[in-house]
Write a structure and sequence with these properties.
Blueprint lengths: L10 E5 L6 H11 L3 E3 L2 E3 L12 E3 L2 H9 L3 E7 L2 E6 L8 E5 L2 H10 L4 E6 L2 H10 L4 H20 L3 E4 L3 H18 L2
This protein binds adenosine-5'-diphosphate (ADP) and guanosine-5'-monophosphate.
Length: about 190
């Protein structure tokens, strides 16, 4: 629990198309500032070769639904046929919390935590295609993810996400860190 008078930790939602660089940027932010942590989601999708061992809790449908029905997720969504959910945050953890989730999840967080900061990391489709194919995604999977990217960009604009272009990794990481530092000083 946050002590009386102390500032509540920030909640920062990071969304963006697959391959935009969310995971890479979030790792850098957590590395450079130990007062930032990232929530580990549950998913029913199969692990990919590029997944780090702590990317997700990989579970089956039964396990996911049981946790959902027990109120174990603050938000959850189906994405390209698989379930993804954010476990209820630990209220004793005073670190600022990043949720790396899709825009539908961001919408649910906005309703529950209106002061959450929303950041959408983006890159041009041609570069997305290059990065997804570089990590070994099948062509049909890339096409589905690009279609989803178009839908998410529209929804992110409606929700007033701050858009950060990740054409340069250091620049994009710095831009997001500045958003976090400003919110620490001035409030979200
Ligand atoms: P996401 O988490 O959004 O799916 P990743 O962080 O896994 O994306 O990044 C996808 C790929 O793009 C990785 O191989 C990563 O190293 C690479 N990448 C990330 N940012 C950049 C960048 N600015 N320029 C070039 N490659 C990048
Ligand atoms: P991926 O399969 O590339 O790891 O993730 C697919 C999409 O699901 C990405 O947009 C990612 O941000 C999103 N995602 C990951 N975890 C969660 C979660 O817990 N909730 C929601 N709503 N989306 C998630």
């Amino acid at each position: 629990m946050t002590p009386k008078g102390a500032k509540a930790p920030l909640v920062i939602v990071i969304s963006g198309p697959g391959g935009a660089g969310k995971g890479t940027i979030v790792s850098k932010l957590c590395e450079q500032d130990p007062t930032i942590t990232v929530s580990r989601s549950w998913t029913t999708r199969e692990p990919r070769t590029d997944d780090k061992k702590d990317s997700y809790f990989f579970v089956n449908d039964v396990e996911f639904n049981k946790h959902k029905d027990n109120g174990g997720f603050i938000e959850w969504n189906e994405f390209l046929g698989c379930m993804y959910g954010t476990p209820m945050p630990d209220s004793d953890d005073e670190r600022d919390l990043i949720l790396e989730i899709d825009v539908s999840g961001g919408r649910q967080i906005c309703r529950k935590i209106p002061q959450a900061i929303l950041v959408f990391i983006d890159v041009e489709d041609s570069e997305l295609r290059r990065r997804l194919s570089g990590r070994g995604d099948e062509q049909s999977e890339i096409d589905k993810r690009l279609l989803e990217a178009g839908r998410e960009r529209k929804e992110a604009k409606e929700l007033n996400y701050r858009i950060v272009l990740n054409d340069d990794l250091s620049k994009a990481t710095k831009e997001i860190y500045e958003i976090i530092c400003r919110a620490r000083l001035e409030g979200p």
